[in-house]
Fold:
Amino acid sequence: MEDYSTPKPSGLLKRSIREITNIIIEKFKLKPGDNLLSLVHDLNGTVSIKDIYDGNPDSILIEADSSFIIFISGITGPRRDRFTIAHELGHLFLHFLPEHSKNNSYRMRATRWVDEEDSDQRRAEREANIFAAELLMPKERFIGFFEENKIDTTDNASIVKVSDYFGVSLSAAKVRVSSLGL
Structure:
């Protein structure tokens, strides 16, 4: 797979990534907890379940025509899969599309395994995680839900309510609470 590039960090700030996700949310009329498969389809992509131990570590493969396949594990649950799909869409929007606009033969692949010694790879992964969090749990909606429902961060049942509303794992909801300082 030598003719596929790996994600290069965009260098965008969280605020800019939030703006991009807000545009996507508006354009595709996404609501908290929505199924992302229709969004993937609308973007000319597919989702495929694969054994993560099959020796092929790809998590997304994007062709020069912008079609793509997101690979998810068969051993994770739907909420974890939603985050994975959103993360891979982050690679599409933040790392593939800007490069593809400069070179229409550009192809990209991201893998499940990150080289912790590679600062560019780590940065690209952080950017995709920020994108996923903003897409699934938009800051303003998240804070609004948090305040309207008087969520108590020390009460696990309250965090479960947040997790259920946004259709994310309990751990993703907890990380979002922490990252927003709630």
In short: Residues 138-176 form one domain. The longest strand covers residues 45-50. The chain has two domains: 1-136, 138-176. The chain has a mean pLDDT of 92.
